[in-house]
Fold:
Amino acid sequence: MPVDPVCGIELDEDLALPHEYKDKKLYFCCDGCRKLFIKKPGKFKKNI
Ligand SMILES: [Zn+2]
Structure:
């Protein structure tokens, strides 16, 4: 199961919000988390 790198929640791939980052497909629980990641990927990339 994919994990949201911002808040650490395990996600259902079908319901999560996808985002491409350096050829990796990431998933987020909500648009808020996705925006946080896009703003500061360096802060969260250790969780990928
Ligand atoms: Zn989240």
The radius of gyration is 9 Å. The longest helix spans residues 31-39.
